[in-house]
Write a structure and sequence with these properties.
The protein is 9% helix and 43% strand. By secondary structure, the chain is mostly beta strands. It starts with a strand and ends in a 9-residue tail after the last strand.
Length: 379
């Protein structure tokens, strides 16, 4: 196993015996949770130390919740990895004073999960950390695809069967580079040079001068498919651009089952609403034996309000049932609203999966609530 998805339990099991065949008596589990280089940045002292006596020669540790405390999910519109490293070591001792044994492993940690039918210690080993093989996107927006880079990987963008751009993802032992997000745009001057060199009889001269300009130029390119090549194993993702002229499309970004950021577009009608709550008391308005009819007896205080949105997807294929399942199960969701990235909560507590047989054209309606009060009351 190479990774741990900490929203599902992760078990470390010890039933080892000594070289002489003696039964396990005690296991001590040491956990190091850290960021940075895989081998170089681990602290001398462990983050956690767990100890257990063996029962019938067996010990089982469950560690997900302990490790998850060190995962920090945040999103400000920039797509970055939140992956950390986990190194675990088990020290086993045996009956009759026999020898001891040590085993260890280093895993990449994701804020993902598996389903019950996936069994224990689910892995989610896909290269593209998303369940859909087709992306529906606003025709004016970038696409963002999370790639788990466990070895050097090549991402090729194609249009009408021709490669228009290639990006090389280089494997690194740094935790921040375990997930890399690829886009159909770049600020990199090297990208500019590569695209010019691909044109017959053209070249980029005085590249240092070009680099100073090209790094400040936002480049975006159209593509209808993406090929992800890791070690000769190729995953293909199709891109469908949706042009919406009547309604204002909204991009929702959430942490999916792989523990990665994923975008989901809602193209159709949206409805904004406000729900308020308040406290009140009945004041004494008598003054000098009388009262003013302009003075309030029922007095309101601590009045707050939260805004909600009802979003409609537009027509999606039946395969997107899985994506809406993951959105509904996500604990971390954001929306791009009026040019700002704001946290929201999905308030729809049930999801009826739709099929082309039963529902013909599939449109999902989702109710979300902004995660902060409308009035700024943060003190």
């Amino acid at each position: 196993m190479s990774k741990i998805n900490v929203r599902s339990p992760y078990f470390i099991y010890d039933n080892s015996t000594s070289t002489g065949g003696d039964e396990l008596q005690n296991s001590t589990l040491y956990l190091w949770v850290y960021t940075g280089a895989k081998e170089a940045t681990r602290a001398a002292s462990p983050t956690y130390t767990l100890d257990s006596e063996a029962i019938d020669g067996e010990v089982t540790f469950e560690i997900s919740e302990l490790v998850r405390d060190y995962i920090s999910n945040s999103f400000d519109g920039n797509y970055v990895s939140n992956t950390v490293w986990l190194n675990w070591q088990v020290a086993s001792t045996y009956v009759a004073g026999s020898d001891s044994n040590n085993s260890q492993q280093t895993l990449s940690v994701f804020d993902g999960y598996g389903y019950f039918e996936d069994g224990s210690n689910p892995q989610n080993l896909e290269t593209a950390l998303q369940s859909n093989t087709t992306i529906f996107t606003n025709d004016l927006a970038n696409i963002n695809i999370p790639i788990h880079v466990t070895e050097d990987t090549t991402v090729s963008y194609l249009e009408d069967g021709e490669i228009i751009f290639t990006k090389d993802l280089v494997y690194s032992t740094n935790s921040a580079d375990q997930v890399q997000y690829v886009q159909n745009s770049s600020l990199d001057a090297d990208v500019f040079k590569k695209r010019v060199d691909a044109i017959a009889d053209t070249t980029v001269e005085a590249f240092n001068c070009v680099k100073a300009i090209a790094n400040d130029v936002y480049q975006e390119f159209d593509a209808d498919s993406i090929y992800i090549d890791k070690g000769g194993v190729i995953e293909v993702i199709k891109i469908e651009e949706v042009e919406e002229c009547k309604h204002n499309p909204y991009k929702v970004t959430f942490i999916n089952k792989f523990g990665a950021l994923q975008d989901l577009w809602f193209f159709k009608r949206s409805n904004l609403s406000l729900k308020t709550k308040e406290e009140s008391y009945k004041a004494n308005i008598i003054s000098s034996g009388t009262y003013s009819t302009n003075t309030r007896q029922n007095t309101i205080f601590n009045k707050t309000g939260a805004e909600s949105l009802q979003l409609n997807t537009g027509f999606y294929p039946e395969s997107y049932n899985e994506i809406f399942r993951q959105l509904s199960l996500s604990e971390e969701v954001w929306i791009n609203y009026d040019g700002k990235t704001l946290p929201i909560s999905v308030k729809s507590s049930s999801l009826n999966y739709k099929t082309s047989v039963n529902d013909k054209l599939i449109n999902y309606t989702i109710n979300v609530e902004f995660s902060n009060d409308k009035i700024n009351n943060i003190r």
